[in-house]
Amino acid sequence: MIKSFREVIAKAKNEETRTVAVAVAQDKPVLEAIRDAKANDIADAILVGDADEINSIALKMEMDLSEFEIVNEPNPKKAALKAVELVSTGKADMVMKGLIDTASFLRAVLNKEVGLRTGKLMSHIAVFEVKEYDRLLFVTDAAFNMYPDLKAKIDIVNNGVSVAHAVGIDVPKVAPVCAVEVVNPNMPPTLDAAILSKMSERGQIKGCIVDGPLALDNALSEEAAKHKGVTGPVAGKADIFLMPNIEAGNIMYKSISYTAKPKSGAILVGTAAPVVLTSRADSHETKMHSIALAALVSNQLLGKKSKEKVLLSI
């Protein structure tokens, strides 16, 4: 099982190289991430934005832009729309947020004419490599869905599982995280957790094991689970942490980011193509890791489409 971003990068390097369209690319950490992704054979790139600014930043970085296509569009909103259009028309395989606010970027992603809507729920998944743990930690949803109901949580689990599969985790363990590890009728997230667990047990949620409710300590630590007498296939071994709402998800995301000094990456899935949705404050390493995750998901999506075409032709 893949346990580090070094292994994620190696896996992406061994798969077919994909192309990322960058929306508003005139940003030093973004260009550093693109440079490193290219150097690691993870992805090629089409840089959409103010060409003069892109060239100026690259010159200061001593970055050779001759390997990349540049599409000059100084207007940030138009640049975002163009980057998304490159993906929807098949000229690129994934899209990345550059120096543009998230709301404007997502409006382009959701554009009715050239956007990446599929009719499925979109969700954000963050992946962390923390030194103290022997596995990657997948946290969802910390940025997109605010107060998901049971139906939305099923979709969020499926989206998270698809990313885990793309990374190389065949049967990820999913913990619906709650404040307690028992079902309490006065705490709706525990009821959702119990239903999700039963659905998983009956094969209604496939490709993973869901078991909960689990408090965070019992999901993370086998020792904590043992002390509390919490048993089950996911207790202390969770790969995917399904958060009850955006507050809990966002707090967990930022707590890990600022206290554990992890390596991390994050993408938006449930779209026609993966979306690299990182913070403008994220390091170029985090952005490069996110591109690697998106490349793996892209290869998985395109592989499924190829199989579907073969089946239809039979």
UniProtKB/TrEMBL annotation:
Annotated ranges, domain Phosphate acetyl/butaryl transferase: 69-295
GO biological process terms held by the UniProt record: butyrate metabolic process
EC code(s) of this entry: 2.3.1.8
GO molecular function annotation: phosphate acetyltransferase activity; phosphate butyryltransferase activity
Annotated InterPro entries: P_Ac_Bu_trans, Phos_Acetyltrans/Butyryltrans, Phosphate_butyryltransferase, PTA_PTB
Lineage: superkingdom: Bacteria
Record's keyword terms, sorted: Acyltransferase, Transferase
Gene3D superfamilies, A to Z: Isopropylmalate Dehydrogenase (3.40.718.10)
Alphabetized Pfam families for the sequence: PTA_PTB
Record has Acyltransferase as a keyword: yes
Protein family per UniProt: Belongs to the phosphate acetyltransferase and butyryltransferase family.
Name of this protein: Phosphate acetyltransferase
Species name: Clostridium acetireducens DSM 10703
The gene coding this protein: pta_1
